[in-house]
Amino acid sequence: MKLLKSILVAIDFTESSDHVLKNSISFAKTFKSKITLIHILPDDIDNEKVSLLLKTAATTKLNEINQSITNEGLETGTPILEYGNYCDKVVGAADHINANLLIVGSGNKLKDDAFQLGSTAEKIIRKSNKPVFVVKDGQTLDIKNIICPVDFSKESSHALNSAIIISRMVDAKLVILSVYPYFKYNFSKLDAAQINEARHLEHEKEFKAFLEDFNLIDLNYETQVMGGDPSEKILKSIKKNKSDLLIMGTTGKSGISKILMGSVTEKVIREVPCSFITLKDEDVVVLELESKIQDIENHYNLALKLFKNGFFQESIQQFKICLDINFMHIPSLKGIAEVYEKLGDTDNTKKYKEMAERVLERIENMRIENEVRKQIKR
């Protein structure tokens, strides 16, 4: 089972790049991902000898780093060495290898403990259709608290899907935040406080309806609804909840606007004090099951993993494959019953529990029959 098949990591051989690589390896180990490295050289070097020396040095360094990743037990792709515009080449390579995630570094840490997002990272976020993971310089990626702002758009749905799975995989708490704009004006017949209270109630209803499409069973999460300026409230909530990772859509509605990268997203990612992942049209994590598994034990263990990580329907499918191999496989019957119980499907829960009981009874009868036959033979 793979959730995040391919990661493209952009490196420039600096100390900051070493930090990005270290965190990329840690992330890849969690999701059993393949890492492909990319480095960009300038294409305006007229001196052929200098250009060749740079290429040789960069190739050697890329291969050394690639080997160090292999030594960590991870799968690697062929390192990519490109010439030209850094942003265009990195974004293009992510599309070419069909990466699930593109990891880059951020700007440097400032004296007041804030961060300045580098212009290159910001350009990549703007141009990339792939999810982009920006690792903050100097921060260890020990993810305990994740925050995901949503505005009920398609883009925020992608963000929340990924946030839920990542939260399960790293055993982190997830805060799902939604912000509605305040009504600020007072007119003779209108009370701003009453209008905002009505907006709050309506927004909570919409929020609740939005969340019904997501699997939150057994997830360590809380929801927050705030009124006011979206970017200010998102940043405030990040600090209050001590979030280690922000996951958000870069386009959308209600503040996370419909243009290429909305003003809210732009302000948040420039000021956010933690690492973050931005998404447009694709989920970071996509479930991919290996089709070559043959034996019942592997299917059963996979079913247990899927169940643990909240992929309930997929776990049922794997349990049923076990039953196709052996229709009397009691652990799978009990496993299906447990999944349906989590889903609140009482009819199917009862059905599979009764099936397990009947199989147990049949096995017991067969055991007794065999014992009787042994006694007769004596």
TrEMBL record:
<dbReference type="InterPro" id="IPR006015">
    <property type="entry name" value="Universal_stress_UspA"/>
</dbReference>
<feature type="domain" description="UspA">
    <location>
        <begin position="143"/>
        <end position="277"/>
    </location>
</feature>
<comment type="similarity">
    <text>Belongs to the universal stress protein A family.</text>
</comment>
<dbReference type="InterPro" id="IPR014729">
    <property type="entry name" value="Rossmann-like_a/b/a_fold"/>
</dbReference>
<protein>
    <submittedName>
        <fullName>Universal stress protein</fullName>
    </submittedName>
</protein>
<dbReference type="InterPro" id="IPR011990">
    <property type="entry name" value="TPR-like_helical_dom_sf"/>
</dbReference>
<feature type="domain" description="UspA">
    <location>
        <begin position="5"/>
        <end position="136"/>
    </location>
</feature>
<dbReference type="InterPro" id="IPR006016">
    <property type="entry name" value="UspA"/>
</dbReference>
<dbReference type="Pfam" id="PF00582">
    <property type="entry name" value="Usp"/>
</dbReference>
